[in-house]
Amino acid sequence: MVLEDVMDRWKAAVDAHDPEGVAANFTDDAIFQGLKQYGVGKAAVAAYYDSQPVGLKAEYEVLETRRLADDLVLGYLNVDFSFTDRPTRNVYLSVVLRGDLIAHYQVSALG
Predict the structure, then answer these.
(1) 50: domain range?
(2) DSSP letters of 50-92?
(3) What is the superkingdom listed in this entry's lineage (predicted)?
(4) pTM above threshold 0.85
């Protein structure tokens, strides 16, 4: 399934601390919202992940997926971000894929 393929590439780049590799999974005009301010485009994604600590790892589980159109997929995921020096951070992630790239990325920290 396209969602798992994209998220597996995203995870591999996050785990490798490869900000440009993470950004390669996004569209040129992607709207990106991590746990900090939002940004638009691959440069914003790369800058966000470049600011993350070395050793950050991501484990995800797809909770829901919907095909919105032939080339659009909505995914809702649970993600655990683990660190070398602090407790794991659990978040929920919504993504919209256009083809095999992320066009919208929204993290929510519940609870």
Answers:
(1) 2-108
(2) HTSPTT-EEEEEEEEEEEEETTEEEEEEEEEEE-SSS--EEEE
(3) Bacteria
(4) yes
